[in-house]
Amino acid sequence: MQDQHRNDRQRVAESVQRALEAARRLGASAAEASASIDSGLSVNVRLGEVETLEYHRGQNLAVTVYQDHAKGSASTADLSSAAVTEAVEAALRIARHTSSDPCAGLADPDLLARDFPDLDLYHPWDIDAAAAIELARACEAAGRAVDARITNSDGASVDAFEGVSAYGNTHGFLGLREGTRHSISCSLIAEDEGGMQRDYWYTLSRVPDTLEAPEAVGRRAAERALRRLGGRKLDTRKAPVLFAPELARGLAGHFVAAISGGALYRKASFLLDTLGQAVFPDFVRVHEDPFIPRALGSAAFDQEGVATQRRDIVRDGVLQGYVLSSYSACKLGLHSTGNAGGVHNLIVDPGPEALDLNGLLRRMDTGLLVTELIGHGVNTVTGDYSRGAAGFWVEGGRPQYPVEEITIAGNLRDMFHGLLAVGSDVDPRGNIRTGSWLVEEMTIAGH
Description:
It is built from nine helices and 17 strands.
């Protein structure tokens, strides 16, 4: 396995260098290329039987060339010399037919990464199909054994992934990345005289040894499904809403989308021209840390080779910076923030009270705890937000009964300003790390 990995690292680096050399030789004024090789094993078991078993190993090279700010791109799944040269030739043909764009080009060479710290991102899982099947079966069986009301299953899955990639450009930059990502998940169905409810749980990590035990994942999925039985509807009202951490991550994602360069230069954001202004209450800090060992969003450079950086995006509630690639920064007359491809470990700090979920429930006293969102009713241009939801009605700081078939609605700008607390119950399973969000008031509509 180690020999294969070393060979893959060498192949992607050589493929990128080969593409750049071909681009220079064929007359491109500038070029950039990326190559990757990845492999993975995926198993899904339902009711103890194997439904799917997949192994994949893939490779890809993408090249972009520039001719006086005209851009052409092409890709290939073949890393041979001939195929790479053909891809470069195709990209050049495309560039001849595209319009010149003064912002099209490579990143500023002064911004390219020069330090490449070991972020400990590569931990392959030495697991074969038979062992993965047994883990998935154990996960599902543990969940089904929790209660007789667990009557059915959507299955349990085990996934192992590893990959290596290289990016380079004609400024002389060449950087390698390698990483792994593994997960165990389970989705179960509970049933009583009132109907059926489904819920799930999963564990995700770069390091297989830090995954939750499969039995714990199955039991958690069962408990989540069981607690939703007996769901009620609500009449229309306004009330505080508490978003569980995995859903609060989505709210933070909408914020990132609104301050991203593409939305800003197109003037398609409800947070247009808010740099230096309060966008959250003064206790809120949102920052980026690309250098957390083993974290899912860690990287020394972005998709253009620009060095990533630790930085505050929101401090004391005030927007400190945007999320920009080289192209969007040029369009705005600014500099890249090292975010071509997105943010790297965005962290929303817990509020000063550092309340866990139970503490936030007591702080809310009466309102809605949301544990599931349905649909995509979010308008980043206006900030209007409307999603189907399910969760629990809370009174006296304690969940009283499950609720379903409701809609929660508001405006993201108002929701951000009306953020009362961010919890300490941080969910680390993603590129955005945050605890629960308690929003002062939203409209809750029954069906």
